[in-house]
Amino acid sequence: MLTTRFSTCFGLHSPIALAPMAMASGGALTAACADAGTLGLLGGGYGDLVWVQKEHALALSLLQQRSGALSRFGCGFITWRLDEDASALDWLLDQPHTPAALMLSFGDPRPYAARIAQRGIPLICQIQRTQQLSECLEAGASVIVAQGIEAGGHGMNSMDGRSTFSLVPEIADLLQQQSPSTLLLAAGGIADGRGLAAALMLGADGVLIGTRFWATRESLASQAAVNEALNANGDDTARSIIFDILRRKNWPPVFNFRALRNQLHQQWEPRIPELICSPEPAQRAYDAGVAAADFTRAHVTVGEAVGLLHDYPGAAELIARIHQQATTLMLR
From residue 330, how far is each of 170, 191, 197, 201 by CA, in Å? Predict the structure, then answer.
């Protein structure tokens, strides 16, 4: 019941992709997802070459005896960061292993499309609004990810962003009209089999999951951060520019960051202009919080689906659970 165009195209057991979360989707988590039959996307994130090399090598070592799983191992990058430094992408494209897919998010993918296509690598492009679709189709994207503002980490700001539940079917209709062979994944607020089944009903070919995989044993997220998330619910998250300022991340203004709304975040919510003008005192407080693993000040990167996290499983166990629940619902 869960065989879709996406699972068939990429040789998956379940139509699920791991979100390439920066500093969370490392080699161990990517390999575990690929080995369990989903598309594992390494979190290339900000394009730190040394980090990508290290985690890529780890994933390859874990999958070296698993040829089928190796064919499900890819990577993702932040596109605007590649505009500043594409050395990690260039290095990856020079490696003997051909990635199963490369995902680009948060910027124009067209400058990188030709070199990706030359290696015969499928391009996945993540968008948050219908107006972004045309440039991705022009780039030759094989897969579009429609990301709702429910997602954790970076996404479109709340003024311009869209809900997953309305964005996915609208993008599905546009693809049917403009590029019917292009596949569609839903992202944002999906953490269990109910979300997978719902996405398929909305016209998606599969899902991209972040927050739920963030809280797995193979993730690079700390146990302390996961414990914070397990005691939270969706009401406890907020999307703003605050943590980007505190972390000194110079993101394009149309995108901002969803995480748990902790005390430091709440302190600056009514004073964002002041924070922009004079961030240093708040940055020092944040840095001290990170050093002490004090999550009243340090951030916990989760989306609105955090209220659906109730345990800390391995990735393979989680995938089997999501698949079984979605199958049962689809059979009904």
Answer: 22, 16, 6, 9
Q: Which domains does the chain have, with CATH numbers?
A: 5-221+310-331 (3.20.20.70), 226-292 (no CATH)
Give the neighbor-by-neighbor strand order of the sheet with 123-127.
16-18, 206-209, 183-187, 143-147, 123-127, 102-105, 73-78, 40-45
CB atoms within 10 A of CB 96: 5
| Amino acid sitting at position 216 | T
Burial of 253 (0-12, 13-18, 19+ CB in 10 A): exposed
Q: Tens digits of per-residue pLDDT, 96-151? A: 999 999 999 999 999 999 999 999 999 999 999 999 999 999 999 999 999 999 99
Q: CA 36 from chain center: how many Å?
A: 18
Let me know: does 136 contact 125? Beta carbons within 8 Å: yes
Look up the pTM and report it: 0.96
